[in-house]
Each structure stands twice: as C-alpha cells, then as structure tokens.
Fold this protein.
Amino acid sequence: MSLDGILLSLVKNTACRLTIPTFFIDLLFYNRTLSCLVAIELKIDIFRPEHLGQLNFYLETLDRDIRMPNETTSVGLILCTGKDDTGVEYALSRAMSPTMIADYTLHLPNKDLLQNKLRELTELAPENIEDDKQ
C-alpha cells in the first residue's frame, strides 16, 4: 500500500511481546508525512467496542516501546464489515489515541471511481507537502 511514498509497509502481523500470550497487530505502516506508526486492525465482523480496546493496547505498546523520540503519536485504524455510527461515537468519545473506524465491502468499486479518487489524492498530496514546508 503506497500513496506516492507517504505510507511505508513495515511488517504484517507485528508481535507485541509484553505478556504471555503474544499479541499480533494485523498491519503496521509508517506514515512519512505525519512521522508516525499506523496500526491497522482487520475485522471480519461488525465493529464492537472491544475492538477499540484491543487497538488502544497496540497503540500504547507502539508508543512506549517502538516509537522513536522524534516521531509523533501512533495512529490506529479499524476496518470492519459494518458499523453503527452511534456505537462508534460512544466507543470513541473517551478514546485518547487518534483512531478511525471504517467499514469495508468485499467487492471492488468501479474502476472509474478508483481512478478518480487516486487522481484526487495525487493532486492533493503536493499541496499538503507544500503547506507543511511553509
């Protein structure tokens, strides 16, 4: 996964060896623009509040044991098959870590839609980089 080199894939199923048993982060990326680790949890069911607890555990582990002093706080993303917006709002209302929850579908969007979104992202990326330099 790459957006013009913004996200770098580190490893799949990164181990968090704090206790027994060992816990695994599904996907771990590094965002060069934000200078932070991005933990992604993949769920094959609808969002449940305990998913957020699991992700917060991983984010705390990353921030305490892996994040470098010059990097910003780790960010989390939960991808699930569905979500109830009210339930998500309640679950996130007291969350301290930057976290996003999104649902996904098991089919690809139409090719034209994907090409348009990619074009939008590539047009926005240079603007954001220029804004950061100022």
Q: What stands out?
A: The beta strands are 7-16, 23-31, 36-42, 75-80, 99-103. The two ends are 28 Å apart (CA to CA). The CA atoms of residues 85 and 101 lie 10 Å apart.
